[in-house]
Structures are given as structure tokens and as C-alpha cells.
């Protein structure tokens, strides 16, 4: 089975953007380039506006990912669930495209006979454990996020630990937005795990603006450059012959 890489951008925010380009449009561009955009909206006692909730959902939908509105105290389990669910959703999408190419445009996994569908589900589960995973994490550091950052820190360490059981490689990068001199600010470059984020979170400074669109755009530029440096444009491609197709 050919090796592929699942690429995700995980956005953690507690409000709607108020500066720069439309984040929904930028998320659509990310999806076109093979990057799934997941968004978690963090609230304390229902403080997020209807507009903020709508934007969280729209960004994730446009970016082919998962959205979730969550109380800060539940953040850790939600980050893990969203990351894994998005991996499965991406793999499902690729498998369905392969099936459509083989059997015709109208066919999807659910249309197959039970035995073949079961075989493919096993393949999907296996790929979720064996494909390489890269997660570019963007943390909103607008002023209202200040008291939520300790829980964000804990959730990201827990995410790293929870994914160590996978046989595929995991890599994470952590950036905050807005940056002091640019749209995003690097806290931790690509690393296979987060042992401690205390030092990185001390570097974070909160701001009044939320330039979500420019932040996603800059994150996409970093991901694109990383792919070029590694000399790879491989997507989530894999062979379905092992599943008996």
C-alpha cells in the first residue's frame, strides 16, 4: 500500500475574525491543496456569539474538516476526537473517490456489498493508524483567550500523547496569531511530540484583533513550503487492491 501523509490545520479560537481576508475562502484554498482545516470554538458559559459559531462551522466545512464548539474544561478530549475524526473523514473521501474511478461516478463505499464494504472499513481503520500525520496548530491569542490558554496547553500535550500509539509518524507545529510582527508567530517548529509546552506558552502575548483569514493563509504558506523542501506533493493516495477492489 503506497505511503501517504494526512495534513491537518487545527484552529483553536473563541471568537470571530475581525481583520483581513475571509477565513472561509482561505480554508477552501487549503482544502484544494490537500490540507484539512479543523476548527474548535472554545467558550466559557456560552459566551460565543451566533456569528462566531457560524464562522467556526463555515471555516471547517469549507476546509473539508470538523468543527466543534466546546467548553474550555472539555477541550482535551475534544481536540483528540476532532483530530481522529477528521483523519477518518479524509480517508473515507479518498476511498470514495477511488471507488468512483473504478466503479463509476455514482458509487460510494456505502453502495458496495456488505463483505467488500467491511473489507474497506478495515482498510480505512488501518490507514488511520499507519499513514503519516502532520498537524499545524494555530492558537488564537486575542485578549479574551488569555484565561483559556492553560487548558489549550494541556489539551495539546494530551493530543500528542494520545497519538503515540499510532504506527505512522506524527508531527506537530505550534503557532499563535496574531504575531508581534507578522500574521502568525512560531512557538514550536515541527516536532514528533509535545513533551512540555510551558516554555512555548510563556511566549504568547494576547492582542485585541483576530485576523483568522491571514493566519490560515500564512499557515498554508508554511505547509506549502515544507512540502516543497521535502520534494513531495504526495497526497493521501493509496492502493485499494488490498481491499479486494
Average of pLDDT: 86
Rg (CA only): 18 Å
Secondary-structure element series: EHEHEHHEHEEHH
Q: Determine the oligomeric state from the structure.
A: single chain
Distance between the termini: 13 Å
Which architecture would the CATH scheme give at its second level?
3-Layer(aba) Sandwich
Q: Structural class of the helix and strand makeup?
A: alpha/beta
What is the highest CATH level, the class?
A: Alpha Beta
User: In terms of per-residue confidence, which ranges show pLDDT below 50 for 5 or more consecutive residues?
Assistant: 241-245
The tally of helices reads: 7
Within the CATH hierarchy, at the fold level, what is the topology?
Rossmann fold
Largest sheet: 6 strands, mixed
Organism: Evansella caseinilytica
Protein name: Ca-activated chloride channel family protein
InterPro entries: VWF_A, vWFA_dom_sf
Domain VWFA: 1-91
Features of this protein?
single chain; 245 residues; alpha/beta; Rossmann fold; 6-stranded mixed beta sheet; 7 helices; 43% helix; 20% strand; globular; disordered C terminus
Structure description:
This protein has 245 residues and is α/β, with parallel strands linked by helices. It has a single domain, classed as von Willebrand factor, type A domain (Rossmann fold). Strands 3-2-1-4-5-6 form a six-stranded mixed sheet, sandwiched between helices. The two termini are 13 Å apart. The C terminus is likely disordered.
Amino acid at each position: 500500500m503506497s505511503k501517504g501523509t494526512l495534513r491537518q490545520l487545527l484552529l483553536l479560537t473563541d471568537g470571530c475574525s475581525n481583520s483581513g481576508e475571509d477565513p472561509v475562502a482561505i480554508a477552501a484554498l487549503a482544502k484544494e491543496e490537500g490540507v484539512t482545516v479543523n476548527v474548535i470554538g472554545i467558550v466559557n458559559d456560552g459566551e460565543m456569539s451566533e456569528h462566531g459559531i457560524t464562522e467556526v462551522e463555515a471555516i471547517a466545512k469549507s476546509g473539508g474538516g470538523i468543527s466543534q464548539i466546546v467548553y474550555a474544561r472539555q477541550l482535551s478530549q475534544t481536540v483528540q476526537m476532532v483530530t481522529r475524526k477528521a483523519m477518518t473523514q479524509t480517508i473515507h473521501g479518498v476511498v470514495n473517490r477511488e471507488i468512483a474511478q473504478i466503479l463509476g461516478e455514482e458509487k460510494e463505499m456505502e453502495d458496495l456489498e456488505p463483505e467488500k464494504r467491511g473489507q474497506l472499513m478495515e482498510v480505512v481503520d488501518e490507514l488511520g493508524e499507519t499513514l503519516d500525520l502532520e498537524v499545524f496548530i494555530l492558537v488564537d491569542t486575542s485578549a479574551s483567550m488569555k484565561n483559556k490558554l492553560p487548558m489549550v496547553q494541556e489539551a495539546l500535550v494530551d493530543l500528542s500523547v494520545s497519538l503515540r500509539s499510532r504506527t505512522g509518524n506524527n508531527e506537530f507545529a505550534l503557532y499563535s496569531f496574531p504575531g508581534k510582527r507578522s500574521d502568525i508567530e512560531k512557538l514550536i517548529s515541527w516536532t514528533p511530540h509535545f513533551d512540555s509546552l510551558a516554555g512555548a506558552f510563556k511566549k504568547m502575548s494576547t492582542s485585541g484583533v483576530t485576523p483568522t483569514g491571514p493566519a490560515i493563509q500564512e499557515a498554508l504558506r508554511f505547509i506549502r513550503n515544507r512540502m516543497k523542501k521535502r520534494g513531495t506533493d504526495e497526497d493521501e493516495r493509496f492502493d485499494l487492491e488490498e481491499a479486494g477492489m
